[in-house]
Design brief:
The chain is of the alpha/beta class and 354 residues long. Helix content is 42%, strand content 17%. It has a domain at 3-190 and 228-253 and 295-314: Rossmann fold, CATH 3.40.50.720. The protein has helices spanning 13-25, 65-74, 89-94, 96-118, 160-179, 201-210, 230-243, 260-274, 302-308, 316-329, 331-337, 341-350, and strands spanning 4-8, 30-35, 55-59, 79-82, 119-121, 124-125, 130-136, 183-188, 191-192, 215-218, 224-226, 228-229, 249-252, 257-259, 284-287. A hairpin with a 2-residue loop joins strand 5 (119-121) and strand 6 (124-125). It is globular. The structure holds nicotinamide-adenine-dinucleotide and 2'deoxy-thymidine-5'-diphospho-alpha-D-glucose. The site of 2'deoxy-thymidine-5'-diphospho-alpha-D-glucose has 19 residues, from helix 6 and strand 10.
Length: 354
């Protein structure tokens, strides 16, 4: 059955990967990409589909009620996939309010617009519609040495970013509990792959190594993240839209726990051995730790495996090679987005080292 997807934040990292994945996989869908085009949004990611009749782009802020309502009035949207967010923890420590505006108020605005467009009676909605909130494992807080986040782990966010995402999740849940709006929430671990803005660990370290800049390690570098290849995440979202039970939360994780220092050394060694023998460990620089830094994230993706048949297909060793090769072969992509207006922020944040 042909479906129309309203994808918000589709010019960002995961959103653009999702649009490319879905258009590659299905002939008979339509995708409307709604993106404000903040520093993190880049239509270049979607150049290969920009003239595809199944795809259209609207530049709008998800907080803009009139603009979002117009989109619902103009098209029979079946699915909302809400990626739009301020997504970087370090930025949230500098400017929490921007995170409240987009991540909380923007999500509530979208929920309201979807409810108004889809409602056919009291707690009754058009057949086959769904609102999918793309959330994060960071809403669960931090783990000690052992254990995993499950869907029933209590919410315990620590940063302004994760607090805003947890708040949004609670509003999504409230629209299910109160109005029976068909929703799903997915909470995934750290994604990596092509088109990730080079403020996040993996693309930052690749870019800085290629440019002989220092590699900033927050604190002791022994924090652990559970790395998920972005294409595997896109597949999980597709499966959740099709088969996720309304009202349910699904955790999506990669079974790839690595320390930050392991990640940094892996990237450095690859570039040293394959691209530029002159780079070495002297680039690694321990800097002040992130405030409120979560020590360890790890997801048990048992529920999504059991209920929807999804599992992470890409081992870290394969995913990191694909990612390294993409960034090395597409250096102008990173150069373009770290030049001009972003240069000053980028240099202030990470320093310039020759
Ligand atoms: P990103 O920062 O790369 O992209 C965010 C996109 O949202 C950009 O295109 C930006 O222009 C757009 N946007 C921001 N504010 C907007 C607004 N007010 N209105 C419309 N568009 C707006 O983020 P990402 O890494 O692709 O993350 C996508 C989603 O997945 C986010 O909701 C994030 O919380 C969640 N998530 C990300 C990860 C990860 O590892 N990257 C992990 C778990 C969850
Ligand atoms: O877990 C999911 C989350 O993963 C998403 O919800 C967020 O949107 C996404 O940004 C990511 O958050 P993290 O804070 O885990 O990712 P980041 O890439 O910023 O940092 C990963 C780890 O690396 C973290 O422990 C901080 C550390 N780090 C990061 C940077 C940018 C460094 O040591 N040095 C750095 O320069």
């Amino acid at each position: 059955m042909s479906k129309t997807y309203l994808v918000t934040g589709g010019a960002g990292f995961i959103g653009s990967n999702f649009i490319l994945y879905m258009l590659d996989r299905y002939d008979d869908i339509r995708i409307i990409n709604v993106d404000k085009l903040t520093y993190a949004g880049n239509l270049e990611n979607l150049r290969s589909v920009q003239t595809d009749p199944r795809y259209s782009f609207v530049q709008a802020d998800i907080c803009d009620t009139a603009a979002i309502t117009r989109i619902f009035e103009a098209d029979d949207v079946d699915y909302v996939v809400n990626f739009a967010a301020e997504s970087h923890v370090d930025r949230s420590i500098l400017d929490p309010e921007a995170f409240v505006r987009t991540n909380v108020c923007g999500t509530v605005n979208l929920l309201n617009a979807a409810k108004n467009a889809w409602q056919t009676g009291d707690d009754v909605y058009r057949d086959g519609v769904k609102f999918l909130q793309v959330s994060t494992d960071e809403v669960y807080g931090s783990l000690g040495k052992d254990g995993f986040f499950t869907e029933s782990t209590p919410l315990d966010p620590h940063s302004p970013y994760s607090s805003s995402k947890a708040s949004a999740d609670l509003f999504v849940k409230a629209y299910w509990d109160t109005y029976k709006l068909p929703v799903n929430i997915t909470r995934c671990s750290n994604n990596y792959g092509p088109y990730q803005f080079p403020e996040k660990l993996i693309p930052l370290i690749i870019n800085n190594t290629l440019n002989h800049r220092s590699l900033p390690v927050y604190g002791d570098g022994l924090q652990i993240r559970d790395w998920l290849y972005v294409r595997d995440h896109c597949k999980a979202l597709d499966m959740t839209l099709s088969n996720g039970r309304p009202g349910e939360i699904y955790n999506v994780g990669g079974h790839n726990e690595r320390t930050n220092l392991f990640i940094i050394n892996t990237i450095l060694n690859y570039i040293k051995n394959n691209v530029d023998p002159s780079v070495d460990e002297s680039l690694i620089t321990h800097v002040r730790d992130r405030k409120g830094h979560d020590r360890r994230y790890a997801i048990a993706p048992d529920k999504i495996r059991r209920d929807l048949g999804w599992y992470p297909e890409t081992p870290f060793e394969k995913g990191i090679l694909l990612t390294l090769e993409w960034y090395i072969n597409n250096r102008e992509w990173t150069d373009n987005i770290t030049s001009g207006q972003y240069r000053e922020y980028y240099d202030n944040m990470y320093g310039v080292h020759s």
